[in-house]
Design a protein that fits this description.
This protein is α+β, with helices and mostly antiparallel strands. It has one domain: Arc Repressor Mutant, subunit A. Helix content is about 45%, strand content about 15%. It has 4 helices and 5 strands, in the order αβααββαββ. Strands 1-3-2 form a 3-stranded antiparallel β-sheet. It has a two-stranded antiparallel ribbon with strand order 4-5. Strand 4 and strand 5 form a beta hairpin. Helix 1 packs across helix 2, helix 1 packs across helix 4 and helix 2 crosses helix 3. The chain is globular, with a radius of gyration of 15 Å. The termini are far apart.
Length: about 110
């Protein structure tokens, strides 16, 4: 399958982070999950969005003074399918789903 962008290891790391997130994730959280610097992650997010694989929106809540507004990203249906295909093709597996919090032990994942 032809891709409208270059697929690097960093791109695959960002894709894994996006697929593992539940719903919207802001850019800095994606960078942390991908273990990549934001200077690498934001251009990747822009390429994925230009390709139609991501939708983004700016934080609507009143930001904390001195803290920049967050931009949230979400995979589109085409993006989800493309990311799954690429990760299976290049890495042979999909990321594990995120652990759901255990209601009996707030803040802890299910063991």
């Amino acid at each position: 399958m032809d891709r409208p962008f270059k697929v690097t290891q960093a791109t695959l790391d960002v894709m894994e982070a996006l697929l593992s997130s539940e719903g919207d994730a802001h850019g800095y959280a994606i960078a942390q999950a991908a273990k990549k610097p934001t200077g690498s992650v934001y251009p990747i997010l822009a390429r994925l969005e230009s390709a139609g694989w991501l939708d983004s929106s700016w934080e609507t809540a009143e930001p904390t003074p001195g803290v920049p507004r967050k931009r949230f990203y979400r995979l589109t249906p085409n993006g989800t399918a493309g990311v799954r295909e690429l990760l299976l093709e290049r890495r042979g597996a999909l990321p594990s789903p995120p652990a759901r919090p255990n209601p009996l032990r707030p803040g802890w994942g299910i063991a």
